[in-house]
Amino acid sequence: AQRVTQPEKLLSVFKGAPVELKCNYSYSGSPELFWYVQYSRQRLQLLLRHISRESIKGFTADLNKGETSFHLKKPFAQEEDSAMYYCALRPFGNEKLTFGTGTRLTIIP
Amino acid sequence: KAGVTQTPRYLIKTRGQQVTLSCSPISGHRSVSWYQQTPGQGLQFLFEYFSETQRNKGNFPGRFSGRQFSNSRSEMNVSTLELGDSALYLCASSLRASGNNEQFFGPGTRLTVL
């Protein structure tokens, strides 16, 4: 079985401060890991995936297989980062996404 | 390209009724997945269709069913509605069903069961 845990339901960070949203997973095989974001009144959209190793909107995430984690980080928070963030896992070769419960990030001006 | 569209956007039904939701994927996308989003359970996978065949199924009762048409449009049906079926139902489309490609989500259909 696959499971994704996001321990923080709510996270408030001051503008300009570093951000870290935690994600841990359990899966016996090789997973693909993703971060999805949902801004207010917008649809769920992909932020980044571990395979591409890109930095999107200043966010990065590194897959740590030893700790089974995929934490999302940004060095300097911006007000437009306020949103709901979901970590998700997908087995390779499969379309089924398993989501964490999400973290609502609020950036304090 | 137009994004994933879902109709209707809002729906109110009463217990015991049935409902059909529709999803039109991005042009050229052949895989459609459905998810249920509730405050208590979060986002949960319902099923996935590719080339008119169900490829994956989540842990939902048989009251939840779906199908895909030859033009890749998909419908999901919930029979004998229960109060707990109130949720946002999201559909996502992707090019193919082999993973390694991005899923694009629709705006969702908000179902309220009274």
Draw up the topology in text.
The complex is a heterodimer of chains A (109) and B (114).
Chain A: E1 3-5, E2 10-14, E3 19-21, E4 24-26, E5 31-38, E6 45-49, E7 60-61, E8 72-74, E9 83-91, E10 98-99, E11 103-108
Chain B: E1 5-7, E2 10-13, E3 19-24, E4 31-38, E5 42-50, E6 53-57, E7 64-68, E8 74-78, E9 87-94, E10 104-105, E11 109-113
Parallel strand pairs in B: 2-11
Antiparallel strand pairs in B: 1-3, 3-8, 4-5, 4-9, 5-6, 7-8, 9-10, 9-11
3D structure, described in words:
- The complex is a heterodimer of chains A (109) and B (114).
- Chain A is mostly beta strands and 109 residues long.
- Chain A contains no helices and eleven strands.
- In chain A, strand 9 (83-91) and strand 10 form a beta hairpin.
- The termini of chain A are far apart.
- The model of chain A has no long low-confidence stretch (mean pLDDT 93).
- With 114 residues, chain B is mainly beta.
- Chain B contains no helices and eleven strands.
- Chain B has strands at residues 5-7, 10-13, 19-24, 31-38, 42-50, 53-57, 64-68, 74-78, 87-94, 104-105, 109-113.
- In chain B, the strands form two sheets. In chain B, strands 2, 4, 5, 6, 9, 10 and 11 form a seven-stranded mixed sheet that branches.
- In chain B, a hairpin with a 5-residue loop joins strand 7 (64-68) and strand 8 (74-78).
- Chain B is globular and about 35 Å long.
- Chain B starts with a strand and ends with a strand.
- The chains are: A mainly beta (109), B mainly beta (114).
- The interface between A and B is medium-sized, with 21 and 27 residues.
